[in-house]
From TrEMBL:
Full protein name: DUF3788 family protein
A UniProt-annotated Pfam family: DUF3788
Organism field: Leptolinea tardivitalis
Record InterPro entries: DUF3788
Length: 153
């Protein structure tokens, strides 16, 4: 993202902690991928009934994101980007192995490969560009929920 003539490597578009973006600003920035944004949000809401908020997350490298929580634990966060959005999902090592064995799209595969492995897992940041990415997001959320025992099986 270009910000004041400097290339910014932030995850999200809105990086000013002091200014919470209005819903109209979020929708404008997401642009043509707004229907995918709404599909992901509606799917998360109907499947998991999570607590959710729009919050400045992890500092200016991430910015404002829509956060979904279950049982006090992070399920996922969505960060508006210029012309789209990025979904953050944290998976433990076992879930990463399962994800690598799934038939995922290019964006998901690249997010898994690019993420730094930590003992507790990897933070995946998946740019959502099409319906295949949406499907991958929901498949990965199933892994997240099972590994954290966030809902009854």
């Amino acid at each position: 993202m270009l910000f004041l003539g400097v290339f910014s490597m932030s995850i999200g578009y809105f990086t000013d902690k002091k200014t919470e973006p209005a819903d109209t600003d979020v929708r404008r920035v997401i642009g043509s991928r707004l229907s995918l944004w709404e599909k992901v949000i509606n799917g998360i809401q109907s499947t998991y009934s999570p607590m959710e908020d729009f919050k400045f997350l992890y500092g200016s490298n991430y910015g404002w994101g829509r956060r979904f929580r279950l049982k006090g634990q992070l399920l996922t966060s969505l960060y508006p980007t210029e012309g789209g959005f990025t979904v953050q999902i944290i998976l433990d090592p076992e879930s990463i192995e399962a994800a690598l064995n799934m038939n995922t799209g290019k964006n998901t595969r690249q997010a898994i490969e690019k993420a730094t492995p930590y003992p507790e897992g990897r933070w995946l940041f998946i740019p959502v560009e099409n319906q295949d990415d949406v499907k991958d997001i929901f498949d990965l959320l199933i892994l997240r929920v099972k590994s954290k025992k966030l809902v009854k099986s």
